[in-house]
Amino acid sequence: MALASWKSFNFFNVSQAKPPEEKDSNLGIFEGAEISAVTSGSDNLFVGEPSGRIHILNSSFKPLRTFPANDAGIPVTKLIQIEGTSLLVSISEDLSSEPELKVWALDKTEKKTGLPRCQSTLTVHNGGKQFPVSAVATLSDLSLLAIGFANGAVTLVKGDLIHDRGAKQRTVFTSEEPITNLAFAPPPSTGTGQATLFISTTGRILSLLTTSKGHGGTPKVLENQGCGVGCMAPLRVDATSSIGAMGGESTDGVVVVRDDAIYYYSSAGRGGCYAHEGPKQLVTIFKDYICLVQPPSTSLNETSTIQKTKNTFKRLIGTAAAGSATDNPLETTRFTILDTDLKFVACQEAVVGGVRAVFSEWDDLFIVGLDGKLWRYHEKELSQKLEILYQRNLYTLAISLAQKSGLEDSRLKDIYRRYADYLYDKSEWDTAMQWYIKSIGDDTASEVSSVIRKFLDTQRIGNLIEYLEELHRKGIAGSEHTTLLLNCYAKTRDAEKLDKFIKESLDQDTRKGDRALTSGSTLDIETAISMCRQSGYFEQAVYLAERAGEDEVVVGILGEELGKWNIALGYLRRLSPDKVFSNLLKYAKVLLKEIPAETTELFIEYYSENYVPLKAVVQNEANDETEHHHHHHHHENQQSGGGSYIPGIPNIVPNIANIGNIGNIANIGTYASFLTTQIPYIGIFGGQTTEAISKEETVTVKFEKCEKIPYTAPRPRSAFSSFVDHPREFITFLESVLREREELRDEDKADIHTTLFEMYLLRATECRRDGDEAGQAEWEGKAKAIIQSKEELVDTSNVLLLSHLSNFRSGTILVREKQGLVFDIFRSCTSSGDTKGALEALRKYGDQEPQLYPAALAYLTSSPEVLQAAGEDELRQILQTIDERGLMKPLQVVQTLSNNAVATVGMLKKYLGETIERERREIRNNRKLIASYRAETAKRQQEIEDITTKPVDFQATRCSACGTALELPVVHFLCKHSFHERCINRPMRSPGGFHQDDGENDLECPTCEADNRTIRTLRKAQDETADRHDLFKASLDDSKDGFGTVAEFMGKGVMVSRSDVEFGA
């Protein structure tokens, strides 16, 4: 393929780099003929001079170091930097002696000179012939070097040049033609054992297999056409380059350029080529590109073999560097960068005056011109290159370039979308849709919406269906996409595609091992069911709902859509206990409205823990009439738009052993008939295939009980709200659960009894309103029985409230009596004006609650009517009881009766006279006690005064302890008791006992000690009581005589502060 047909772009930014001038020269380092060798690597640029010096430059082209390669000033003609290391190989020669090869360790220096350390020096042999070195190639570990000479000889050097452990040289190839290029392609890693050396001369291209021992095999001629110096380069094979596999060629090869074309060679021979007319001066590899230096086309005039050979030798010996490429400085040299993989020209520039050298480093490509100028070629970012291609509508090339560059998938899909938009604008709908489909990704939600909007035109409905189907296949479709796809199927009336879409989605989930659809299913089940219901495809909707385990939806369709609530209840009977509960509660109200008896029975079975599911058993037999029925059924569905026949897809009779129980209710036959009409949809779960269903059969559906599944029924109160407006069924449910459920918690029993009590009163109220006294008595009797027999399970406040609201006084009285609320019973009688009931309550509960008497006194004197109804004798009896029990003070009685003018003084005359006489007697007694206390106090005070102020006369003659006559020494106490000193010192028993303390002043009369201890204890108790204010308050609250309690505690010192006592002491 000719390069003339390739598209050309400007994928590189070209700028001139201006290296700094040397301090000792007016010329730049790249100017004139001062450069004899250039190489790069390891983030540095290396320049050799004819003077024998080597310069090391950084990325700013500032010299980092300059050192001589030899002491004789021999020109440096070849430089090779070992990539990834600090090693530099230099070859110096001047044709007066054999070339000198040195290996430099740039990271090491000589201690004396500070120059880089030379690791090894080797004189390269050429059989004693003085010819210049024309080409050099080396392995990455320097274990093998190939050196070519202008006389056609190739010397192979094998050894450890890095550590200078010796090296062997061998001439492995000779030719009459000068060697132009050498290359190990690709450079093998260390330790491979052998490498292929490619050799080019002016007349041939050869390959030579070398061994690790430095031996060379027989050269293999790949082509009898050679190339010029610099016109062969090894193919680079690395993680970022695909140039080695261009055109499907082997990667162990080289690229060769001649005046007519670009050729690829491998060890097997010549590969592909690209026609490209024009002279070639140099070829090099940069990333994925092939870079060509093409001298001016005027040089084509010199086409003679002599002239070509002349130019080649001038370039070999280095004398053509300055001007051999062109003698006219105004002529331009073309520099071309090619991508032979994608077949385009990445950059093409004209270099005035010719090119001296080309090197790449710092991720850029550089050209050294013969005029000393340095040009930098910086590759544009991928986004910039893609934008250039977008502007020229070259989307296929942009896609190939992005794929080759390893662009991330999301950005690659963006290019697909751009290309699809371009095709859409050109009205190439089908092709555009293919690229839109390729652009679908996880992060393309916004683009998906725009694509859908474009194809919403009814004429493009087919493309839209294709796009939506792909969204579902890739699992990124949302519910709105499913809705749109199903709408498209419905709009096109394509029932076959609808069935296929459902079946493929379900088959995919079945292969995953899921019987029922889940949230990770291919099909959005909720949306699909909704769409089928809206479109009238009820068979598909019921099937999808059952398959997804959406039992509520199944019941909803059967009841709400089809109005078959008896069938819906039959379906519930097939469900397992855990599933039937939620569905039963959701549809309980409408089921109780439509079929109350059957629904109540299901409630009773479930909440009594007696629920047992049933399973549907299908029996088929071949029958011609069934075939007619199936076709007729299918035809009706198509005509009514109510769905379509789906061969091979099951409906709502799955073969599951733990679903459904209908018992003996009437709707089991109706449900069985319904299942019979749905048998054409029984396929996968019933174990039938599409072929089996195609054989028309007579179908019979029977129900069998499954084994009972243990479960724990929920609390009965969870079902209470379902029975609103259904009191009869509610009472039946509550009574049955209470009777049939074996284990009920106390709180559940309380709920049921309280609710039953309320329902009984409700029914009694209805009977009273209807004039049914017998019915009222029956329901009130049941309510009273609950209070009497289940007192501990009925909440008192609830019963009182319900009884009050229902005007059920018997219940109120009974509960209050059970709970000991007798005061409330009396109050309820007085509030209702029932004087007789109040007196009966007083006589019945007066002993239990004495405070009823003060309340009764206030009630009887509240009005003349009440007093007249009770009688004055009853009032006197109440006053007598109050007086006897001390329930009220006389003053309180008078105050109570004085609140109104009902009671007269005559009614209180006897009560007041007795009270006044009793009070007088108490006053007289108290005065006598006061006089005796005063006399006793005066006597004690006089005794204390005599003891403290007057001498005491001790007249005792006998010891109070031993009873013998007193003998000195004697101890006398102020209490008139005398003792022998020995009787006090000697431990002895006495009526009171005594002891001796450490000090004499602490002696205490043994006879009086017990009485004194008692007095001290009483005094201490009084002191402690004086500080116990809580005890004083409690005694005052419990006392009937408050004044007496206060006086008693004052006598004990409760009103005297501690400081006053101490001061008085």
From TrEMBL:
Region (Disordered): 623-644
A GO CC annotation given for this chain: HOPS complex
Listed EC numbers: 2.3.2.27
Keyword Transcription applies: no
Subcellular location: Endomembrane system; Vacuole membrane
Pfam families named among the record's database cross-references: PEP5_VPS11_N, TPR_PEP5_VPS11, VPS11_C, zf-C3H2C3
Alphabetized UniProt keyword annotations: Membrane, Metal-binding, Protein transport, Transferase, Transport, Ubl conjugation pathway, Vacuole, Zinc, Zinc-finger
CHCR repeat placement: 439-600
Record-level GO BP terms: endosome organization; intracellular protein transport; organelle fusion; vacuole organization; vesicle docking involved in exocytosis
CDD domains: RING-H2_Vps11
Keyword hit for Cell inner membrane: no
Transmembrane feature ranges: none
Reaction catalysis annotation: S-ubiquitinyl-[E2 ubiquitin-conjugating enzyme]-L-cysteine + [acceptor protein]-L-lysine = [E2 ubiquitin-conjugating enzyme]-L-cysteine + N(6)-ubiquitinyl-[acceptor protein]-L-lysine
GO molecular function: protein-macromolecule adaptor activity; ubiquitin protein ligase activity; zinc ion binding
Bilayer topology annotation: Peripheral membrane protein
InterPro entries from the UniProt entry: ARM-type_fold, CHCR_PEP5_VPS11, Clathrin_H-chain/VPS_repeat, PEP5_VPS11_N, TPR-like_helical_dom_sf, VPS11, VPS11_C, WD40/YVTN_repeat-like_dom_sf
RING-type domain mapped to chain residues: 959-1009
Family: Belongs to the VPS11 family.
Known partners and oligomeric status: Component of the homotypic vacuole fusion and vacuole protein sorting (HOPS) complex. Component of the class C core vacuole/endosome tethering (CORVET) complex.
Name recorded for this polypeptide: E3 ubiquitin-protein ligase PEP5
Lineage of the organism: Eukaryota, Fungi, Dikarya, Ascomycota, Pezizomycotina
